[in-house]
Amino acid sequence: MKGRKSVPYVNIPNNLPKPQSVSKVSVAAPENYRADLKPANVREEDDKCDKNVSTPSVIRINNAKDKNENLLTYIQALSFEDIWASCKQSNNLFEDVNFPATNSSIFCNCTSKVTVQWQRPSEITKKFNLKPELFASNTDTTLALGNFGDKWVLNAALSLVEDTEGLFTILPRGQSFRDEWYMGAFHFNFFRNGTWEKVTIDDRLPTIDGKLNFIHSFTPNEFWASLLEKAYAKFHGSYEAMKSCSFEETLHHLTGGTVITHNMADLDTTSLDDIIFQSIECNCKILCSIMADGRKWNELLSNGFVAERMYAILDIRGIKLTRDDIVKPVTLVKLKSTDGLRLEWSGAWNSHSPEWRNIRSGDKEKLELTIDNHSETWIEIHDFYKIFTSLYVCYPTANPSTFGSKMLNKVQEFEGQWLNGVTAGGRPTCMDSFWVNPQFEVKVQNSPKGGAFFIVDLIQNDNRLIRHKARINNVVGIALYQVVLNANLAKGTYIVIPSTYDPNQEGEFILRLVYDEENNIEIRQLGDVINVSYDMFNCMPNTTYDLRNKFLELSGEEMKINAFQLATLFCELKLKDFQADVEICKSLLLLSRHTSGYCDFNDFLLIFGILSLLMEIFTSTGKSLNKKITGYELVDLCEKLGHIVPEKFLMESLWKFTDEETRLSCGNFIRFVCFFTSTFSEERNSA
């Protein structure tokens, strides 16, 4: 960032003493720390009343093996402001106990024998006689990967160099190494699961032989990138866990945007032209790269580009060249090397290319066909198409107001989950279960010429901290009937179906749908409609049993029976070798017109009829009464009864009635239907 000034800092009095050491606090209960570290000038009654008084935090725990879990929870709950205020109060630098300066913060497997020294920026720059800065003044920002740095984090970070607002979204303004502000603590923001999460770190960085071996700036006293990488590593649990991220994931975490990847092999130059133009209109971040394909990462190619380095697309221009009365249309793409290094494109339309002689200098200015510095170049779209292999478009969906046009100005988010036996149906080829996946209805009421542009973004809730313990995310996908993931929709109704690859894989997800509000698009989740059929309340037993006499034998003069007597009565009736136990009878009594846990003879006839109907419905699956059904079959049987069971109710209630394999016996099927029916039967009771 050439000529960039230092980040603005918080105006704090200059007469505060400079930190000299790291505080050492013995382990105790959180409330003891609250008392011991309370500012001396705050009275007990003031502390209770004044919410603006910050409670100082624990800066360091001496014996890591004896850490009290309650204390750790207390520390994690502290905000950056609390930590900073505590450090300022105690005049000590911050040490992060939640992301310690040990190999456990670097490797998933802490048995690694790599010797790492953790140093603060002031210790690293001491040998250069320089003071550390977040952003070095009057220099270009050029970053090195180091021996262990992550190339996707490097590329994503470089893409933010010219995006000042984007960079200061993840690295909030006001932080610096100035003596009056610096306390060894910095905070960053990363986007996950639909929201920005704050990550606070200390500034101790891993070095080997005194040198930074992860991402760092070529300018020895510039540290924003190294600190960003450390915060991102903490965000995932360790430096190693961070490496499991794809470039798309990393860019999403750093921008909050929806990232769509296009493989050049799947496009033609016309569609490529449309995608770039449309993306620029939407104020998207557009990046492209060349697959290494057997080459080394960062290898300089003969055409002047570098393998797997990210290049930003800044502009696209269509011009017409006339020669000998022949008009030749040419489409030019403006590229910029994100690392700020010289771009040595050797083909047509580079800065020294003879093609520029066909355009007068005045016309170049009018057509904005200029190059601002040595890291930029123009390239003809056909050459671009042949050379580059991947195109990344990042739509700023975390903040729709930043869109450059009205083409995309509305974002709707839905949270959902795949639940084993209920809503985890797997991919479309799983014909027996795919239909049970969560479904979202999209109605396009008004479609302009060419269709309504629409983006579907499926995000599985991030389990990277769990993955730190050797668990991986499920493979997920989207089935969008009649359209593709990123499409122009004609007027009509569509169904979006998020799914995992295999059935019965559990997980949570966020579905983000992005569109133009003017197209009058309505979106709702299917399965949240409740319908209870009352036809089964009209069924009466068709039997030769002498029900009245048997009922009277048990009920006596009161002419009513409870759940225990009802179970005895059903036992005597020997219903198709099915035993309705007391728990089943209690559930059946929920359908009685009485709420006292008893039923009279008319209610008994109703309950007997319902029980017979449910047993018949259960056996319609082809299974005997002593077998079990799956959660998928439960939904199907409920629909046969005329019940539409909402997905939320299923996920919240089904576990009460299923075994470890999410299966239900006939008895538990009956109990579930009774529970659902009684829960949503206010309409029947009020009729």
Automatic annotation (TrEMBL):
Gene Ontology MF annotations: calcium-dependent cysteine-type endopeptidase activity
Q: Where is the signal peptide, in residue numbers?
A: none
Which species is the source of this protein?
A: Dimorphilus gyrociliatus
Choose any GO biological process term that the UniProt entry carries and state it: proteolysis
What are the residue boundaries of the Calpain catalytic domain, all occurrences included?
93-397
Name of this protein: DgyrCDS2973
Compositional bias of type Polar residues: which residue ranges? 12-22
The record's section on CDD domains has: CysPc
Renumbered residue ranges of the record's region Disordered: 1-22
**Which InterPro entries does the entry mention?**
Calpain_cysteine_protease, Calpain_domain_III, Calpain_III, Calpain_III_sf, EF-hand-dom_pair, Papain-like_cys_pep_sf, Peptidase_C2_calpain_cat
Q: Which PROSITE patterns does the record associate with it? A: CALPAIN_CAT
